[in-house]
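3.2 Worked example (two chains)
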Amino acid sequence: MAALCLYGEKVKYFTSEWWASGCENESVIDKYREYYLSISSKLPDQLRSFEENHTLHDANVTSISTDLVKNEVAINFKGWDRELNYPVNYEIYFVGVKSFNQTSLQEDSEIGDLGYWEYEALDGDIEMRMLFASGAQFNVVFNDFRFSVSPRQLCMGG
C-alpha cells in the first residue's frame, strides 16, 4: 500500500439511530453477537483476546499515528477495564492496513466517547468500525492486530 485509502462501510449493527433510540432493540446485540461468533475463528488471536478481556466502551481517543511505510495505524485511548471500574490506557495497533477512514458530522468538534464498534470479515482482511458519541466514525481495514494496556491514574482535585 503506497498510501492509506479513504473508504469504509457505515456501521451495520450498532448504528447512530439505534444508539439514539436508547439501544432498546436488543435483537441488534444478539444479531451482532451471532455474526461475531461466526467470524471469530478468522480474527487474529490478539484481537480475540482483546475482545474477550477488555473494552473500548466510553474510551476517548488521545492520539492517532500512521506509518505509511509499515502500513500500520496506532490509536491511543483513555478507557476503562472491562467492568468499567478502573481507568486504563489502551494502545491498539492495526497492522497490514489497507484503509483508514475518519468521518465526522461536525467540523471542529470533539468526537466524544467511543460508544460501539463492530468487526466484519472481508476476503483475508478485517474491518473494524467505531461509532463515537458525536456520530463520528472510524473505519480501519487491516489483517493483523496487537495491543497494550496500562493502568491510568485519575486526577482528583478541585
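3.2.1 Second chain
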Amino acid sequence: MVHVFCNLEELGGGLPAMCDMTFEIVETAYDEKANFWQLKFRADATPYEPVGFIAIIPVSGWQEQIDGEENDAFRSFWGPITLCSCGIESDRLLTLLAAYYGISTPRPKNEGFVRKLFGNKGHGVINELKFASRVECFAVGINSDPSLVAKKPVHMKLFLEDGVENGRYAEVFLDIDMLQGFAALNEKDEGYRTDLVHWLSLPGNVMANPYASQA
C-alpha cells in the first residue's frame, strides 16, 4: 500500500514540505440512479495504522466555463463534491493532518482511545479528532472534466466556505486517476490549514458549499 506522505512537495530553502497526501483507490461504486461515483481512498501511514476517506463525484450537472480562445482556451468545470468519513480511518487521517499542520486539539480522555485510533504504535499523535460524516464542498475541474473521472485523470480544486465575509474558508487540491488507481489530496496554501481542519472536523453532515442552492 502506498504511504500517505510518499509525494511530499519539497519547497527548498529549509522550509517544511507542503502537506501533499497520496492514496490508493481501494473501492469504486457507481450509482446509476443518482449518477455519481463513490470512491474510497486508503493509504499506509506507518508508524500508525492506515488512513482514508471517501469522495462522491457526480457525473452530471457540471457547469463548463471557457476563458480564452482556441489553443489558448482554459476550460474549467464547476460543481459539488462530497467528502465522506469511512470511519476510524478518516478519524486517523484528520488527526494526522492536524498533527502535521501543528494544530493543537483537545487531548483524548484516555490513552485507550489513541491506541484504538492508531494501533500500538500510535503514541506519537495523542490528540483526538473525528472526521465529519459528510462535507459537501464546491469544486472546479481545472482543464479537466470531473464527469469523465472514470475515463481520464481529473485535477480539481475544492473550496470549503460558509459564504460569509471573513468567514471560514479553505482550498485544497483533489487529484483522481481511476485508471491508475491513485488519488491525491494536496495542500493549496498553508494559510488554509486551520479552516480546512475546522470544516473536516464539524459533526454530522456539513454544508461547506454556499452555492448549492444556485445549482
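3.3 Remarks
The CA atoms of residues 162 and 208 lie 6 Å apart.
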